[in-house]
Amino acid sequence: MENSGGIQASLSGRYATALFELARDEKKLDAVSASLATLKTALAESDDFRRLTTSPLVSREEAAKAIAATAGAMALDPLTTNFLGVLARNRRLGQLGAAIRAFSALAARHRGETTAEVTSAHPLSSDQIDALKAKLKSQLARDVAIDLTVDPAILGGLIVKVGSRQVDGSIRTKLNSLAHAMKG
Questions:
Q1: Any alpha helices (H) in the chain, and if so which ranges?
Q2: I need a labelling partner for 175 at 20 to 30 A (CA). Which of 6, 83, 91, 133 fits?
Q3: How far apart are CA 84 and CA 99, in angstroms?
C-alpha cells in the first residue's frame, strides 16, 4: 500500500499505518474505524480519559490496566483494544489523537475518498454534514470524508482544510481582519 511520506514519517503515523494494515488484512476496517471514532469522542469529551492518555505520572502498568478497563467499558473491538495496549506499554498514549487522524486519512484513501478536516464553533447536524459533503464532492470531484472538530473559539462559521488547502470562513478570522483594516 502506498502511503504519503507525511503519515509514515511521524511516530503516530507509523502506529496508525500498522493498525490500518492489520485491520485491512483482517477485514475489520469498519469495526476499527467505529472504535477509533468512539475514542476520538472520549478524548474530546472526557477530561479523565484525556489525562490518562497524556499524564507522565501514570506508569506503564497503570496505563495498561486503565486502558484495558476503559476499552471494555467502551466495547471497543479487540484489534483496537490491543492497539491501545501497545500504545500504553510503549508510553505512546499521548499519540492517540494523531494516530486516530492518520488512520482516518488512510482509511479514507483506501475507500477512494479525500478527507476534509472541518472545524466548527458548534456541532453540525447530520443534514449540515451531508450538505457540506455534497458541496465538497462537487468541488473536488471525489467522495469526501469529514473529520469534524468543534472549537467554540472560532465563534461561528467553518474552517475547512483539504490537503494543503484551507478555507477559513470563521467569524473570529473575519473580526480579526476587520480590526486590522480599521487600524489602517
A1: 5-9, 11-25, 29-45, 47-54, 60-74, 78-89, 96-110, 126-140, 171-183
A2: 133
A3: 11
Q: Which long-range contacts (CB under 8 A, 24 or more apart) does 77-85 make?
A: 77/28, 77/31, 77/32, 77/34, 77/35, 79/19, 79/22, 79/23, 79/26, 79/28, 79/31, 79/32, 79/35, 80/19, 80/31, 80/32, 80/35, 80/36, 80/39, 81/35, 83/15, 83/19, 84/39
**What percent of the chain clears pLDDT 70, i.e. is strictly above it?**
95
Cβ(78)–Cβ(34) under 8 Å? no
What is the share, in percent, of the chain residues with pLDDT greater than 90?
70
State in words which class domain 5-107 has: mainly alpha
Q: Is the pLDDT of residue 1 over 80?
A: no
pTM above threshold 0.85: no
Condensed to tens digits (0 to 9), the pLDDT of residues 150-184 reads 899 999 999 999 988 999 999 999 999 999 999 86
**Where in the sequence of the chain do the CATH 1.10.520.20 domains occur?**
5-107
Q: Does residue 48 sit in helix, strand or coil? A: helix
